[in-house]
Task: structure prediction
Amino acid sequence: VQLQRHADGGFTLHGLRQAEIAALRMVAAEADPSGVEAAEFRLYPDPVLEGDDEGACQDWTEFVAPQLREAFAGALGTMAADVAAAAATGSPRQFRIDVPASHRDAWCSALNQARLVMHERYGFPHSDDPVSLIKVLSGDHAEAFGRSRLYAALLEWIVGTFR
Amino acid sequence: MAGTEVLPGTAVETGVDADLAVPWLVLIYNDPVNLMSYVAMVIRRVFGYSDQRSEQLMLDVHHKGKAVVWSGVRERAEFFVHQLQGYQLLAAMQKAGD
Result:
């Protein structure tokens, strides 16, 4: 996969295979925290984590969390539309995705949501020590781990390139 | 502009409410998933801090488990926590001294 930065702030992913397109299509599903309480809390935490402010937490749940949900869903939808519009070029690595500058933040948000939820859902290791990596790569969620790494690499590239 | 008339028998409270004078802290907590470069970028964007200060605060979060990134009145603290959570950072606020 080749990543090309454009002068206007947009970027293009070149040389994508069907497998990578499929991984990117799964971002929205992977970012859904339904059924994983820790992931739900990670995306929508209370505004006070130390001390006691029950009133503030209730207000947050009622007024702020819905706004966050709407913003997060919007970002996922924007990225999904870009991926759905992937263009085939005719070669084995045949797909290309063009991302306009105005969608860049949505991609960062969507990729990050997916990573956060996946780590909670699948219990991925937080370090790259060999024992942990072998365990996850030989386990039931190896493919999901690969997708998570792809999302991380793409996010790192976007953040580093457009800082 | 006419002066405020105080009716007889009305209790008049003067002075600064001590509770309102206590600043609120905005904290970012370390999480093992968010990328360090992403956290620094968000701090820079939300608070307008320099690259150097944003990087230092990110490193404080990473090494110490959490860092105070701003302090001030409660309403602004709520605004910043909302912003930070909008970037999926684990952020919260706390009254100074709690």
